[in-house]
Structure formats: structure tokens, C-alpha cells
Amino acid sequence: MNNAKILAERREFIGEGARGKSIACEKNSASGAVSQRACVYCGARVVLNPVTDAFHIVHGPIGCASYTWDIRGSLTSGSELFRNSFSTDLQEKDIVFGGAAKLAAAIEEVAETYRPKLIFVYATCIAGVIGDDVGAVCRAAEEKFGLRCIAVQSSGFSGTKSFGYRLACDALMELILPHKRPAGTRGLGVNILGDYNLAGEMWIIENYMRRIGVPVVATITGDAAYETLIKAPTARLNLVQCAGSMSYLAKRMEEELGIPFMKISFFGVEDTSASLLRVAQAAGGGEIVRRAERFTAEQEKKTNAVTAPYKKHLAGKKAAIFVGGGFKAISLIRQFNAMGMETVLVGTQTGQPEDYEIISGLVGPDAVILDDANPSELEAFMQEKGAQILVGGVKERPLAFKLGVAFCDHNHERKHALAGYEGVINFTREVHLSMNSPVWGYVSG
Ligand code: SF4
Predict the structure, then answer these.
(1) Where in the chain are the domains?
(2) Please, which pLDDT band fits residue 4 given cuts at 50, 70 and 90?
(3) Ligand 1 pocket: which of 40, 41, 67, 129 to mutate (most atoms <8 Å of CB)?
(4) 295 lines ligand 1 (CB under 6 A)
(5) Residue 154 CA: which ligand 1 atom is closest?
(6) Does residue 444 have a pLDDT over 70?
(7) What pTM does this model have?
(8) pLDDT tens, 354-413?
(9) Ligand 1 atom 4 nearest Cα
(10) CATH code for 8-29+311-442?
(11) Is 35 close to ligand 1, i.e. is its CB under 6 Å away?
(12) Considering the domain 190-299, what is its CATH architecture?
């Protein structure tokens, strides 16, 4: 691995092969490194935004609201309200004299016009700098209008994107906790945490649960609604898909509501089948396990029959991965391994030490592993390792195309499902079409 182009402050965040398991992570980005991470506010907004019937009011300049407007490709089976973006549009005068009155007026307008049950109010950098008491405005609105109005103190500069996830989890706890049930009154259902119903992925998972006979109580937050969220304390188990964003909520729900949790992943055949079998065991065993065994065997056979012809064209090729959380990176490496491809570069925005330990055991000895990368590092290592496809999000797409390599969007803007067995077929087909496109013969990388 050539370290020549790497800032000295970044070296501890990068490792190769087995050394990748002990890289630094969960730290603030190095100043001047142009991190690929989003801000605290964005982290909070992406977790809460899929709550379909909530009003999301952004207390800040209009740019913060437009930056995250309809940020996820989350689908809804009910209200479309969440697809709007409301802002107090703070101006210079508000910054000098304070914006709290403007926020109170915005909440009043929403409360009186739409009579909502739930409003999330996000404090942005400017609200944090001028010191508006967003919490006090929200509490006063709850009393005045008899609704839930929850402040999310998410000034963009106040930490990392992971801190935003944590603030979103705190906001969800504030909503759920008053609906705590006495021990012994829980049903047989599960909550699904950390799936955001991108392109209908939550519906795919809910369908699997129905097929094996496990009821779903609340989905957090893909296709969530106020009335289903407040029933979450009646579940007996939490299933955590995106551990990076939802482990904190799962731990709080375990400690404060007595609901245990289990980490699962519905990306890739191996992880999907293993997750369904583990859920079936935890949900009571017996007939549920037998159904899960039958269902997974049947789905694996069908999926492998569809993906086999593509694999011939993918075997031996090299992939780079840069995604938000560790759980997705791990599932992607397994999917590439199953296709006969080699992962030569893998990084995440918010990975945790245990994620990097697993990742280092799944890749080869020369693979680069990095936390909180910047474009210059991604470029240098992709070229050095000969990556032929980059899997990432909207910020990584131009980099791949400028380097003349294929790209696969695995971020929250995408419009195609990549979860479950259906997702494996979509992913394999997309990787094949992108990598084996004749266009790469006409560009020089
Ligand atoms: S909260 Fe701050 S960092 Fe985030 S979008 Fe707004 S101004 Fe930018």
C-alpha cells in the first residue's frame, strides 16, 4: 500500500488485510481532509425522515432543508407528508435577534393548518450558533396544541454523522417511551429497526416475516407512522438491520423497555437465509423454524438459478466498496465473494471496531480497509489496487466515472431494491450490466 498521498493525520484510519482490523474509527474527521461523511443534522434527518405522517421542520437557513429534501428513496403505504421539507428559512435579521419566535410561528402554522400528531424540529448549525432554545419552543407547542413536537438538537458541526443517528434514536425514544407496557403484556411480534423502505425493501422483509409466521409490530423507520411507532413497546424482540444507525436505539429499548434485540442483515443470499433462520429460532422455534427452512431453501434455489449466468462474466473481477455503515460493507463483501469477485478496497463512513474486525477476516491480505475516507484516498487506492467497480452513494458516483470504472449505487437515494433474494438478483444484474458495458472500451481510466 502506497502511503505517499495520505495525510499524516489519516494514516491510523487506514490498514491493509489483517492490519485493517485495528484501524482508528468513530472519531471526528481530520481537519482539511474533505471527508465523504455527511453532517450531524443530515445523520438525524435520514433516520427520522421516513416517518411518513410526521412534519419535519428544519430550523435553519433554507439550504439545510433543501440539502435533505426527500433525501431517501423511502416508499410509503400511507401518508406522503414526509416527502415535503419545511424550513424556518433563517435570515440575517433572525441571526442577529434570534429565531425562536419564527420557529414558534412555523409550528403554530403547521399545527393549525394540518392538525398533525407528530412534528420533529431539527436545530441546524445556525440555530446552535445563535443559541435558540429549540427544546423550550417545542415543549410550549406540545402544551398549546396537544401534539408531539420533538426537538432534535442536531447542529451540523456538533460531531459526526453517527452522533446525528444517536440524536434521532433519542427523539424516537422520546416518542415511544410514554407508551411503555408492563412486563408480561407483550405479544409475539417483532419490531424491525434500521430499514428505511428504500424502493420498498421493508415490504420485502415484512413479506418474509409473514411467510415464516412472525408478526411485525413496528417498522423503524421505513414506512413508519405515528400510530404504529407508539405500539413498538408491545413487541417481544427487536431486529436490527442497519446496526450503525439503530444499535443505540435497540440498546435503549432493551434497557428501558425490556425488549431484547438481534442484529440481522437482509443483503445477500447468505445473510438473508441466516437471518431468517435466526429470527425463526428466536421467535419460538418449532413450526416457524420448519417454515423458515423450507422458505430459505426454495428462495436460494430460485435466486441461484437466476444469478448463475451472470457470475460467469464477473468471476475474477475486482471491486471497491465505500458505504455508510459496517453491516452493509460486510454483506457486500460476502456478496462479491459469492460472485467469485475480489474486494480490493473497503471503507465506511461510520464503521465500528467490531465491523472492521469482521471485514479484515473477509478480505484478502492486500485489500485496503479505511474509515471516513476522502476522494483523494479513494482515487489513489482504487487505481493502485485496480478496482473495476465502485459501490457507493451519490458522492462517490462522479469519482468512479471520472476514473473510468463502473459504479453501483447502494445508497439511500436509489430507486431499486437491493435487500432480500429479490435484491440479490437486482444487484448481480446491475453489477454485471455496469461492469461489462461496452462503454468502458471507449474511455481511458
Ligand atoms: S446543519 Fe450545518 S453542516 Fe449541516 S447542512 Fe446545515 S449548515 Fe450544513
Answers:
(1) 8-29+311-442, 40-179, 190-299
(2) low
(3) 41
(4) no
(5) 1
(6) no
(7) 0.92
(8) 999 999 999 999 999 999 999 999 999 999 999 999 999 888 999 999 999 999 999 877
(9) 156
(10) 3.40.50.1980
(11) no
(12) 3-Layer(aba) Sandwich (3.40)
Residue 231 exposed, middle or buried by CB count within 10 Å (0-12, 13-18, 19+):
middle
Strand pairing report for 14-16 and 368-371:
antiparallel
CA of 123 from ligand 1 middle (Å) equals 10
Q: How far apart are CA 58 and CA 237, in angstroms?
A: 33
How many Å apart are CA 9 and CA 29, to the nearest integer? 10
* Buried/exposed code over 361-376 (b: 16+ C-beta within 10 A; e: otherwise): ebbeeebbbbbbbbbe
Taking the C-alpha atoms of residue 302 and residue 323, their distance in angstroms, rounded to an integer, is 28
Does the fold of domain 190-299 match that of domain 8-29+311-442?
Answer: yes
The mean-pLDDT minimum among 167-176, 177-186, 325-334 falls in 177-186
Q: Is 403 in the pocket of ligand 1 (CB under 6 A)?
A: no
Q: Any residues with CB less than 8 A from the CB of 441 and at least 6 apart, and which?
A: none
Residue nearest to atom 7 of ligand 1 (CA): 125
Number of residues that make up the chain: 445
Mutate which of 37, 39, 66 to test ligand 1's pocket (most atoms within 8 Å of Cβ)? 39
| pLDDT confidence bin for 288, thresholds 50/70/90 | very high
Compute the distance from residue 188 Cα to the ligand 1 centre, in Å: 42
CB of 244 shorter than 6 A to ligand 1: no
- Cα 269–Cα 272–Cα 277 angle in degrees, nearest 5: 120
125 lines ligand 1 (CB under 6 A): yes
Ligand 1 centroid to residue 101 C-alpha, Å: 21
Ligand 1: which atom is nearest the Cα of residue 125? 2
Binding site membership of 124 for ligand 1 (Cβ less than 6 Å)? yes
H/E stretch holding 355: helix 353-362
- Of all atoms in ligand 1, which is nearest to the CA of residue 60? 6
168 in Cβ contact with 217 (< 8 Å)? no
91-105 pLDDT per residue, tens: 999 999 999 999 999
Cα(343) to centroid(ligand 1), Å: 33
Q: Which helix (H) or strand (E) holds 408?
A: strand 406-409
Assigned architecture for domain 40-179: 3-Layer(aba) Sandwich (3.40)
The backbone torsions φ and ψ at residue 217, rounded to the nearest 5 degrees and listed phi first, read -90, -65
